[in-house]
Write a structure and sequence with these properties.
The protein contains 10 helices and 5 strands; from the N terminus they run H-H-H-H-H-H-E-E-E-H-H-E-E-H-H. By secondary structure, the chain is an alpha+beta fold. A hairpin with a 3-residue loop joins strand 4 (about 175-180) and strand 5. It has a 5-stranded mixed beta sheet, sandwiched between helices. The two termini are about 40 Å apart. The protein has helices at about 5-15, 25-40, 50-65, 65-70, 75-90, 90-95, 150, 155-165, 190-215, 235-255; strands at about 105-115, 115-130, 130-140, 175-180, 180-185. The protein folds into 3 domains: about 15-100, no CATH class; about 100-210, Lambda Exonuclease, Chain A; about 220-255. Helices cover about 50% and strands about 20% of the residues. Helix 2 (about 25-40) crosses helix 3 (about 50-65), helix 2 (about 25-40) packs across helix 5 and helix 8 packs across helix 9 (about 190-215). The structure holds iron/sulfur cluster.
Length: about 260
């Protein structure tokens, strides 16, 4: 977030303005919790029937959560939410047969220093493939375009670096599992780890400098339209207005 827009990071982590999860993010959270339950079962029991049972068991917790209540969904929208979650959950079968996976850990909390930078993360899944350790992270959104794949894999490479730091084993591969869509995979090499830790150090240094100077520049882009903090951000508001005018002009030109 800091690299995309330092101002947005400041609103979120310094000013601590509310940033409630949207419907898609919450449906993804629900899918994660159900898949965690599934992968904690014995291999042979990881079936559609089992996952349906876990979803039923987990649903009341989600339904009662303040984040879900805050969405204010009516009955039709709740049905759509459940369907969206179910599509993500069953999308695992498009990527693999869960009964063939040797799971070592799920939802592992990692807290270490990487290159002197404090790092905290939750690893969705560690599995053993032959004699290799593989780290996987579930994603319920759309995969990035190919040119951004290497950027998106950084998160799991940092998990690999954290596991290597905490334990006496280095993962061989990392995977982003875009449920129902595709897997993006990378080999874990010493060079790849050095690169992501270097970038983490650079970002951390920029954060510390921003905090010292109280300076968090806005980086307006077309994504400002989706930024929950845009009403607090003059640069973002201008960007949103510019984008709207641009769209109106295009529609007008087409109509003429
Ligand atoms: S509106 Fe745009 S520029 Fe402003 S904080 Fe959000 S992402 Fe950054």
């Amino acid at each position: 977030m800091f690299r995309q827009c330092p101002r947005r990071w400041k609103f979120r982590y310094v000013d601590r303005l509310p940033d409630p999860p949207g419907q898609a993010a919450l449906a993804g959270t629900f899918a994660h919790s159900v898949l965690e339950g599934l992968m904690q079962m014995d291999k042979g029991e990881r079936t559609f029937e089992s996952v349906r049972g876990i979803a039923k068991r987990e649903w009341p917790k989600m339904e009662r959560s303040p984040a879900f209540q805050a969405l204010g969904l009516d009955a039709d929208a709740v049905r759509a939410f459940k369907w969206q979650s179910w599509e993500a959950i069953t999308g695992l079968w498009d990527l693999e047969d869960p009964r063939a996976v040797d799971v070592d850990e799920t939802e592992l909390r990692v807290r270490v220093e990487l290159g002197g930078v404090p790092f905290l993360g939750y690893v969705d899944r560690i599995e053993i493939d032959g004699d290799e350790v593989v780290i996987s992270d579930y994603k319920s959104g759309r995969p990035p375009p190919p040119r951004f794949e290497s950027r998106s894999i950084e998160q799991v490479l940092l998990y690999a670096a954290a596991i290597a730091e905490m334990e006496s084993r280095t993962p061989a591969r990392v995977r982003l599992m875009y449920l129902g869509r595709k897997i993006i995979e990378a080999e874990v090499t010493a060079e790849a780890i050095d690169d992501v830790v270097d970038r983490l150090q650079e970002t951390w240094a920029d954060i510390l400098e921003g905090l010292e100077k109280r300076d968090f520049p806005a980086k307006p882009t077309r994504l400002c339209g989706w930024c929950v903090f845009s009403e607090h951000c003059p640069e973002g508001t201008s960007q949103v207005m510019r984008d709207r005018n641009h769209i109106f002009k295009e529609i007008h030109a087409e109509a003429v």
